[in-house]
Amino acid sequence: MIITFLGTNCLLIRSSFSRVIIDPFFSRPGIFSILFRKIKPDRAIIEKYLKRIEIKTLDAVVLTHTHYDHALDAPEVALLTGARLIGSLSAMNLGRGGGLPETQLYNIHALEKMKIYNIHALEKMKIGDLSVTFFNSRHMPFPGMLDRLLGARDDIKNAFAPPAHALAYRAGDVYSVLIEDKSCKLLVIGSSGYILDSLKGCVVDVVCLGVGGLDWNRPAYAAQYFRESVLNTEAKRVILTHWDNFTHPLDSGPRYLGRIRSTMEELRKMGEDSGIKVERAQTWQSIEI
Question: Structural domain boundaries of the chain?
């Protein structure tokens, strides 16, 4: 299994026979557009970066949640590559608004919870030679009224087509995603949130750990997040994602998001104390797991 970090929480995952992108976000509108304009996918930029990573077709586009910095480009990437769009009801409404046919949409749901690794998972599916399991999670809590303003607990209830305001991209249901092949168990956590003990017993090799916004919370929150996501899963390696400032183009070079650099150093020390390798994902870097 090979993962390539493409900024924010965008990950290309390749196995022997399958290609999956998680949370595609290539367009990356600037801060002025986010605050004062409606935003939309930039097809030329998306095509440019798909060409750069040599992707013409994909088996699936998977969304951990539907904030714009995770989901803005998802329908366009699915259209261009023929991939299924897999995610929450909010993700389905983004797909419909983006012109995807129902045959290309797959809604994760909790109709039949199943017991996997002694914990409850929402759904497990096969994508080529990959086994993909979805677990309920939560978005990181924002301080004060920001939680309501940024829609961390709200759904996208109806299909809508961009351009749309950034705040229209509500989070919807939030998932942690376990991806397995014969060589590896990889857990992807897109938002710095957790449900207490929800992953205990889910033993994995590697965690791709989203850290965006962790610096908005107290150090005790980051420590608990590390326990829930890394120590409870017995991971031996942690790859930090969502550390970069996503209001700048991918090609502009690495820029840290807010004060996240110091928080990442705290996580590295937590890993060192537990014998776990914690590293920052490098943009465009392909990592063999």
Answer: 2-288
